[in-house]
């Protein structure tokens, strides 16, 4: 299921000829047609065959079609036109999506996604009436991206419903929707959406090429697709945003990003995305700029605390007692007097306990999970201190780091922050502050090397994008914010715009 490098033209043509299914004709005889069709789909229990007359037969899969349309619009017409040829039946049926097909494989694929096959005795063509009807849950509030002020509607698993939600937000004729199908076994439909004239054509072409180059057997969720088409699958940091909010998705499209909606998934993909944007919330646009700026700075401070606070504690107690203020030395010594483990073991054990509690609370039912998280944390923390396994101060530090990691508005980025603590704690336990600085330098270098759809991952910090700074760490008043970021906007033919971009690129050199 990994993206393979593009093959040369000769090998690609040979492979395509080998994998291209044989074009089987439609048998003119009804009995032969049904025999071949049953053999093709292995006679499933939900295969429905109805003989309308001696010459007309309809075939479909139960639960995949709209029974009301079938009974009210198709069957009455077929009962009147019992001996009509396929072309006449196609003209008579009041169905929006209807087609003629002379290929058996194509007809079977259409039936598998919710079409009715109409066969007439003596004709080697089928009428394909597409009246699919999939069961899906109703619209509800997003569970992972909640907000107080703003829309309370989230995507669901139906592609058509999600597209309609997007078009309700953006009534723009330039909103483009390109449909693709991925997965040899699942035949999953997905749509690539962007606004022509706003989104960069280079980014659209990149997404289009990466999707077309994929050779996978199945695709069940958009999270899998995001990993397959991102720039660096070996990096822990997410390079594409997964969101369940239509308002955030549309806000990204209006700012020049490219979106992907996958059928069967309630999460949509937005790209390109920078590191700073993962710490921004859609609710920031709905708050006053002073409050939004304070909350953003609080998130970045929480990220730093969550990653480095515990490693600094371990390094200070292991190698660098001189950095600890004298008033704190006595409480620290008394707290650790009966602890038999070195600080690195003590910190790692507590971090693992926190992760176990969090994972148990996430997998259990909601009410039970909340109880396990609260009671488990209190009981285990109190018991650990009384048993002399850990100190009171480290309990406070670990709890603060865990709490700070939950302030990140993006779930994937929050997971990365939690995992990063472990290798940094180990380095701090072996090399002290030198290990912490080594981890910090490695982290910065890794982030500077990353890209999202070819765009710099650390913009607008590096390369400097001064026009994007008013909506980065801080959120300035809306009139001062550029609607389209430099990374995602379409390249303009305006000479002044190109000159400004060239000046910004000179900073790199």
UniProtKB/TrEMBL annotation:
Q: Where is the composition biased (Polar residues)?
A: 486-500
Q: The organism sits in which domain of life?
A: Bacteria
UniProt keyword terms in alphabetical order:
Membrane, Transmembrane, Transmembrane helix
- Which residues lie within the region annotated Disordered? 1-25, 486-509
| InterPro entries given in the database record | Spore_Ger, UPF0353/GerABKA_families
Q: Which GO terms describe its cellular component?
A: membrane
* Basic and acidic residues: bias regions: 16-25
Chain segments annotated as transmembrane: 297-317, 337-356, 368-387, 393-412, 424-448
Q: Give GO terms for biological process.
A: spore germination
Similarity-based family: Belongs to the GerABKA family.
This protein is called Spore gernimation protein
